[in-house]
Hints:
0% strand; Four Helix Bundle (Hemerythrin (Met), subunit A); elongated; single chain; mainly alpha
Amino acid sequence: MMDERPVDLEVALRWLGGDRHLLLELVDLFVEDIPKRVIGLREASTTLDVHEIERLAHSLKGSAAILGATGVQAAALTLEEAVRARQGVDAAGRLADLERALERVAAYLADPRVRAQLTREGAR
């Protein structure tokens, strides 16, 4: 497991009132949706659809907040702000940062030790 955790599961559990079953469902949905969200962001970036990039980044920011994925949350916010400010070159770099943050979260949440921890003991 990585030393630096890209997800604070205690934050997620607090958001969800300690409901581990719901947390596991949300984790699964989030991880399952990552490829679709990345494809959507890339397509919107290719077609310069700033409204769609902003919408997708905003949605990711909210989902990441609930899961305690602060790196994704920050990267999504930075992308959203770059798009809003019409900083095209900067937005491309921010999209790459967001993709890297999403990859870290997906790898962390896919780790069997993390999943086992969620089901049997406190999420740390």
